[in-house]
Model the fold of this input.
Amino acid sequence: MDVLIPLAQQQTAPAPGGGISSILFFILLFAGMWFLIIAPQRKRQKRQEAMIKALETGDKIMTSGGLFGEITNVKDDRLVVKIADGVKIELGRSFVATKIEDPS
Done:
């Protein structure tokens, strides 16, 4: 019984540098997320905004809903799009998914 008492009274000190390694881990985790997720998403968003600003009459587009059409009129915040003979719709600029390029 006397042997167990000194062992129970011993306390282990925390390892030195434990706080620095956990901070370094979170910094590296954030940097990895930045390069793998955030930076590419911002690049795609800037490309999309530039494409939407450059739209003009005569461009063929596809909407986010899957409609294909040709722009007949450009307004400040929306586009008039011809989707069939005699059928024109007004569409918000943000609903344009892609600009269709001619294969030729």
Observations:
- The mean pLDDT is 86.
